[in-house]
Structures are given as C-alpha cells and as structure tokens.
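Weekly structure sync, notes
Attendees: PL (lead), two postdocs, one rotation student
Agenda item 3: pending single-chain targets
PL asked that the sequence for the first pending target be pasted directly into the notes so everyone works from the same version. It is reproduced below exactly as submitted, 186 residues in total.
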Amino acid sequence: MWYKDESINPNGTHKDRMAWEIYLWYDNEIKKQINTPGEKISLKSLSLISSGSAAYSVQKLLKNKGLPNLRVLMDKNTNPKLIQFLEQEECKIYIDDLENKEYSSKEILQKTENYDGLDLTYSPEFDGCREVYYDWLSYEVLNQNPNWVFIPLGTGDLYKNIIIRNSKEMDKKVFSKRFFADKKIL
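Predicted structure, written out during the meeting:
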C-alpha cells in the first residue's frame, strides 16, 4: 500500500534522498549513451507513487537538469491544491484509488502512461546508486557527532551503511578523509 506520511514543502527546502539517486542514475545513463557510437541519446521517463514531497523533490531535480518530467500516481483523495502545485512544477499527475490495491511496477507504468519508462517506486535500477549515496550520507551523519540518530527504515540501506561506516572507522588507525567526527562519541 502507499503511505500518507509525506509532507510537501513548497518553499523548496525539502530535499529527498531519492532525488540524488536519480541524478546519479541519469548521469550514468547519459555517459553510457554518449560512449555508444552512432546511438541517439534517449532518456526514459520516471513514474512514482507519491503523496507529495518525494514527487516535488524528484521533479525539482529533473526540471533543474532539463530531464524528462516525472509521472506521478496519486490517490483520488489527495488535496487538490497539492495536485495543482505539482502540476505547476510540471509533474504529470495521474489519479487513482490507491487505498484498495498495491500496484506492481508494471501497473504503475501503465497507470502513468509510461510504458517504456521506469517505475521509481520499486525500481532495482537505482540500487547501485544507493550504495554510493548512502556511503556519502553515512559520513555526513557520523560527522555531526550525534548522541542519537533516528533513521526512517525505508530499504534499511542507510541504517546498515551508518553501522558499517561507524564500525570501520572505529577499527582503523588511519581514518578516511571523509571522517572527522569524534571517535569517543562514536
């Protein structure tokens, strides 16, 4: 089922981690296609089930980079002002009853008329990007010297990576150049 726990921040300060993964994926995709002689560069559209903030964050990145607009599947009970806001940001919005059924990736692509595109909701295409991104983000978290860290579970990759980075830095005599936290606090 989809989750209604997203919030939108229209002033643009909300940054969603998914947007970074998408940027890395598109960057790699463009590089691959540039290095394929004789091929025309063709970028796939992305689809996503969202109730607001993820769609806004991803679309903002896509729009700023001149990439294809996001196709968003939203619940029929979504606030019309939110839908209008996302449409003004050039998201392509598709409305459906999301309460009664969990959609497969293929169904999400069909519902968003994105037959040759990619579904961000479940897509394994971004798994490689997560590893790089979560490694960087883990150092950002550790370098804050936190006494407590609250991490949304999501895929569990960020949580796992913070623990791994913490362990590795605790075991090292020479720290990574990215690590400048207080070892005593860790």
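Discussion points:
- Residues 10 and 85 are 8 Å apart (CA to CA).
- The chain has a mean pLDDT of 77.
Action: rotation student to compare against the earlier draft before next sync.
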